Amino acid sequence: MRRISKTGNILACNSGETIVEVLVAFTLLSIIMLMFSQGIAFATNAEFRANRTRENADEALRRVQYRLASGERDDTFLQIIGKFADRVKIETYSETIDGQTYVFVRYDVSPLEPVEG
C-alpha cells in the first residue's frame, strides 16, 4: 500500500519536544516570572515608603516654618567656637511625625560691622 508522503513524513518524524522538556521549560519560566514579580513588589513598596517619608518631612518643615513665623523659638542653641563665635548662632528645631524625628538647623548670622579707617 502506498502511503501519502506528506502524512507519512509527519508521523515518522520523532524530533518534537518531550513532555519532560516542556515541563522543564515551564518550570524555568515560572521561576523567572516569580523573581520578576518579587522585584516589582519590592520597587512598589520602596516607592510607597519614599513618598511617605518625603510627605512627612515636608509636613515637619511646614510645622517648623509656622513656629518660626509665629515667633516661637526652641531652647536648643549650639555655640560656635572660634573666630565667628560672636556673630553666628545656631538653633535646632525638631518635629516628630509618625515616630520619625526630623531635625532642622537654623543659622542666624549677624552682619559684619563696617571697618572704619
Number of strands: 3
* Average pLDDT figure: 82
Q: Tell me the count of domains.
A: 1
Distance between the termini: 126 Å
State which percent range the strand residues make up.
15-25%
Large-scale geometry: rod-shaped
What is the CA-based Rg, rounded? 35 Å
The largest beta-sheet arranges its strands as 1-2-3
What are the low-pLDDT stretches, counting only 5+ consecutive residues below 50? none
Kindly state the percentage of residues in helix: 40-55%
SSE string: HHEEE
The number of helical runs is 2
Oligomer: single chain
Largest sheet: 3 strands, antiparallel
Structural category is alpha+beta
Could you give a quick summary of the protein structure above?
The chain has 117 residues and is α+β, with helices and mostly antiparallel strands. It contains two helices and three strands.
Write the layout of secondary structure elements.
Blueprint (H helix, E strand, L loop, with lengths): L4 H8 L6 H51 L7 E3 L8 E10 L2 E10 L8
Antiparallel strand pairs: 1-2, 2-3
List keywords for this structure.
3 strands; alpha+beta; three-stranded antiparallel beta sheet
Please tell me about this protein's structure:
By secondary structure, this protein is an alpha+beta fold. It has one domain (19-109). It is 50% helix and 20% strand. It contains 2 helices and 3 strands; from the N terminus they run H-H-E-E-E. It has helices at 5-12, 19-69, and strands spanning 77-79, 88-97, 100-109. A 3-stranded antiparallel beta sheet has the order 1-2-3. Strand 1 (77-79) and strand 2 (88-97) form a beta hairpin. The longest helix is centred in the middle third of the chain and has 51 residues, at 19-69. The protein is rod-shaped and about 115 Å long. The mean pLDDT is 82.
